[in-house]
Amino acid sequence: MANLIQYAKDQVSHLTAQAYEAAAAAGVLPGGVAVKGSVEIPKDPQNGDYASSFAMAGAKAMKRSPRDIAQAVADHMDLTGTIFSSVEIAGPGFLNFRLGPKWYGDVLAEIESEGPLYGQSDEGHGEKVMVEFVSANPTGPMHMGNARGGVLGDTLANVLRRDGCDTWKEFYVNDAGNQINKFALSLQARYFQILLGEENVPFPEDGYHGQDIKDLAQAFYEEHGDSYQNVEEQVRLDALAAFGLERNIPKMQADLRRYGIEYDQWFFESTLHTSGYVAETVGLLADKGWTYEKDGALWLNTTQLLKNKYLAEGKSQKQVDKLDLKDDVLRRANGFYTYFAADIAYHRNKLEVRGFDKAVDVWGADHHGHVARLQAALDGLGLDGSHRLVVVLMQLVNLLQDGQPVRMSKRSGKAIALHDLLDEVSVDAARYFFNSRSATSAVDFDLDLAVREDSENPVYYVQYAHARICTLISRLAEEGHAVPKAAQIQADLLATDEEKSLIRALGRLPEEIHAAARDYDPSRINRYLVELAGQFHRFYGACRIKGEEEAVLSARLKLADSVRSVLANCLGLLGVTAPEKM
Prior knowledge:
single chain; 582 residues; alpha/beta; 23 helices
C-alpha cells in the first residue's frame, strides 16, 4: 500500500532538512531556522523528477540568497542508500532531485506485490460511505441522464473503496408520492381507453405519454379484463400502480445489471411511510422548533436553517440577508407528506439509523437548489448534514451521431432509453464515455466514435494497449521468456526517457486514485488510462524487447507486464473489460 510518489516527496523533505542541519553545524548556514519549503514534480523532466523550494522559503529568515542556501544544502547532502541519484541547483535556487534505479525498481516491485489492488490506500480510514445513484422514478425506462449517473456513481464507489472507505451502493426507489399517483392515473386513462375507446376517455395533460404506459395498460387488461372497471377508484389506482411497479422495477434492475451495476440495496421510499418514519422525522423537526403551521399545512423554517448554515460557513450577515430564501412544506393540508419530508427522513435513516459517516448522492444538475435545503434540514436534526451529505451534481449528456445531436428515440419518440443505447454500443464504450468528463462538465457522447475500432476511440485505444501487451507476453513465452519477478531484473537497465517516463506514470496511480476519491471525480481514472496507454505505445515504439540481450529483454518484459496489470486494474475500477485479444 505504498504511495511511492509521496514517499519520494517525503524523502526529499527529509534529505533537505538533514543537509541544512549539517550545513548549519558546519557554520556555513545560520542554525535554528524553521523552513517550510514545498516539494513539487516539475512539468519538464529536464528539471529533475522532484524540486524543492527550501532555499527560497528560507532566504528571508537566513538573510542569504536562495542560490547560496541551495549550494550549501547541496554540498552537505548525502544521497547514499536513498532513492535519488543526484541533486542539482536550478533557476533562482530550486534543488532538483533525480530518481535513481532503486525507485524505478521499487515501483515494479510494488505493482507485483499489490497485484490488482495496486493503488489502494487507507486514506479513507475505513469511513462508512453510502453512494446513492441513479434512483430513477420507476414510472418508465431509464434515459441518458440515468446512464451517466449509473457509471459515475458506480465508479465513484469503487474509487472510494480503493482509497480506504467502507462503501455501500444504494438505489432509492421512489415508489410513493405524486409521481406514483400520476403513474397510476396515466395507466387508468389508458386502461379505460382500451375498455371504452380512446376517443371517449381524455388523457391527463400532465400524465406519462410514453408507449410503455400503453403497453402496461394493455398487459393489465389482458390479465384482468374489465374486472377493475367498476371498483372504487383508489382500489383501481392501487392495483394499476402495483402492477406497473412489479414490471418496471425488475426491468430497471435488469438494465442496470446488463450495464454492469449491482447494488448492495434497493431501498423503497414506501417503507419510510408505512413504518411511520417520515412522520417521526417531521415530529423531531417540530420538537426542535423548526416547523410552523400555516394554511393547514406544516412548514419547515428552511429560511432560518439556511441562514444558520451559511453563517457557519463564513458568509456575512449582509450576504445572507440578500439571499432569496423560502420555507418548505413538509405536510400538506390534506395530511400527505411531501417528497422533501420523505427525503429528509431517508437521509436521517442513512446517517442516524444505519450509521453511515457520509452520504454521497449523485444527482442531475437540475436538483442544485435542493442540496443546501436538505443539508440544512439535516443540520436541524443535529446530523451535521452540511458536512456529512455530499451531493455530486451531474451535467447533461449530449448524444451525437454524424456530428449532429440525436434528440429522439426511433422506438418511442421520447428520450433515448438506456436499453436502446446498449443495443447500439457496447457496455464498455458506454461506461467509459459516460465517465470521461468530470460531473461538472457536460458529456458529448458520440455514437460513431464509440463503435470505432481505432486510436481515436479512447476506450479502444486503452484496451488495445492491454491486448497488445498480452500478445507480446504470450509470444515471448512461446520462445521461453517468462515474465520475471521484480527482484530478478536489473532496474538500472531501464534507463531511456521512455522507460523512466512510463514507470513514473505507473508510480502515480495511488495519487490519482486518492485525488479521484478526494474530489469525487472518477473521470481522473479515464484520463490516467489514456495517458498510460500513450506512454506505453511510445515506449513500445522506441524500446525493442524481442531479440534484445537477455537482461534488457527481461527488464523491459517486466515493465510491459506491470503496465498490463495497471491497465487491467484501472479498467476494472471503471467496470470496463480488459481484453487479451483484439
